[in-house]
Amino acid sequence: MTKARWFRLSVVLVPILMILLIIVYWDNVGTANFYLHTSFSRPHSSGAIPGIAEGEDWEALREVDEFLAKLLTSSVKQNSSISRKTEQPLVQSSSKPVASNLEENVRGYDWSTHDARASLDQEKLQVERQRTLREFCANSSFTFPTKERSFDDIPNYELNHLIVDDRHGIIYCYVPKVACTNWKRVMIVLSESLLDQGVPYRDPLDIPREHVHNTSTHLTFNKFWRRYGKFSRHLMKIKLKKYTKFLFVRDPFVRLISAFRSKFELENEEFYRRFAIPMLKLYSNHTNLPTSVSEAFGAGLKVSFSDFIQYLLDPRTEKMAPFNEHWRQVYRLCHPCQIDYDFIGKLETLDEDAAHLLQLLKVDRLLRFPPSYRNRTASSWEEDWFAKIPLPWRRQLYKLYEADFVLFGYPKPENLLKD
Questions:
Q1: How far is CA 278 from CA 190, 274, 336, in A?
Q2: Does the residue 124 lie in any domain?
Q3: In degrees to the nearest 10, what's the CA dihedral of 179, 130, 328, 151?
Q4: What is the DSSP letter of 339?
Q5: Minimal CA–CA distance to 71: which of 242, 244, 245?
Q6: Which residue of 70, 272, 354, 382 sits 20 to 30 Å from the alpha carbon of 284, by its own alpha carbon?
Q7: What are 229-254's pLDDT values in tens digits?
Q8: Looking at the 3D structure of the chain, how many domains does it have?
Q9: Is residue 208 domain-resident?
């Protein structure tokens, strides 16, 4: 190797080594402390490194890639035995859930037992779900916004739903209204990112809901830029290649019904002020609305499901701001054609999928997935909810969420889209 080549390589390596030192010694949860369970992961293309021109020192950068991969693997081997010693066996779930939130009080929990092994061949199910997703991502005749962009084209602020657990090598893309509260609780327990009187939480249901949804609790991809600067995107790609990536989805129309019930049928001050007041003014011709949700509910002023659908279909909505995460499409939250997910769970098979995933991650001895909510919004309710929605609106709504139906194998709701 020539002196010039050594010099170029050292110029790239020195900053990266500094970054790695920061990861190991400065982060609360560092790369050196994780151990991987990725036997079912597939390789991913590394793509380009932001900030480096096409064709510039690519040979040196490939060597850097190999160096980082070896270093990460070495760290895993050195620290896995330590990590295992610190892990504690499964803690029995609390006798009752934390009920600090009106929504959880109203909906309650289903504490009945479930046999996760009984009903589904999980391996075949995962193969089929991933095959469907890959086929439609590769199908040039099936198009939707953002489909063709690369991972490098995704702005950092759109990566805020990818939660990273470096201790176990896991990346979870959370989708609101798809059991995300409890999956976030699981991620907090695994990553030990939140303490209770100086001790990490061990039972997911012990974690108060207000802490679960606090953005400072989780390490997400959009925070990488602040931590790692220009190397952030490259580190994301390394983690995407090495870590196990999963998400959970549900029938898109049922998810919308669930979002409406949660945010507009229950008193929610934030959603009343941000969304309900504009909807009531625009679509129900109300003026001089109360400033608080309790006053509005007391006066019988509530957003109807029809108002909500009009809001989603109104072209002015997205011009003002992107859809709120509770009704934003999954393909916009989790980028399934740019990120090769190792596991795709569904709310419709949540109990079986969750148990199988925790086994694959080799963390099923550490915790159980919290029990499901009872009264889960059912797909059989769709016809009742959409009965008063005009047919043209239903068809427009399907087109708006079609990618989520197709990519994740949900059948087209023909009964709602025909005369």
A1: 40, 7, 32
A2: yes
A3: 120
A4: S
A5: 242
A6: 382
A7: 989 999 999 999 999 999 999 999 99
A8: 1
A9: yes
